[in-house]
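At this stage, I wrote out one protein, both as residues and as discrete backbone shape codes, and that material follows here.
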Amino acid sequence: MAQQKLISINITLGSYQQIVADIISLAKKRYSSYVCVANVHMCIEAYNSKEFANIVNSADIVTADGKPLCVGLKLINGIDQERVAGMDLTPSLLKEAELNNIKVFLYGSTDEVLEKIQKVAKEKYPNLAIVGAISPPFRVLSEAEIANDINTINDSGAGLVLVALGCPKQEKWMYSMKGKIKGVMVGVGGAFPVFAGIQPRAPKWMQDYSLEWLHRLSQDPKRLFKRYFVTNSLFISLLIKEKIRTI
């Protein structure tokens, strides 16, 4: 699929449905691959770290999760790119996995969230096979633990592995697992608690006006205020500089 660089990351171009179809195609083959669902935070993390930029740009697919990235592609490159957000991708991929008899594995988040996801998924997609879930400890895993997780995921037969470790941890994990895990890994970040019904998603009007970050900020201001203030300001500054350069 075609890609377009925006500031620091190469964003995969295409319609929402086409990108979903491409992810499902990888899952059917159990092709060891990974998908980065990129927002402003990820873009700025990649801008500040060449190593992390390489991790993101080595992904098989990089979707424009954040609406500001779509705005940036339009402003700088004149490209109308449809938003492909992790919170939308999660139910779409689960539905397609059910229709295509693709086994699913969940990796990340907490045991409570994982249990609720499986309960909700069973209600919405009764024929979906979620074949396993792992909530890894919040510390560096030993080599034995890493090998055990790889074996557990591969032995489950999963073709689709949804990963929720948060950025940049989940992207680094997927990069390290490429060639080891037999399936497509999709870093969906904060989509798990939303799908599980634990956290509400921003109203559609906020999504449409690139304000979903403001909704998340209101839910966790102490943790997110500095991140959003710094990353959003830098992102806007870099977009303006890039626009001036192209004039």
Strands lie at 3-6, 9-12, 33-38, 61-64, 104-108, 130-134, 160-164, 184-187.
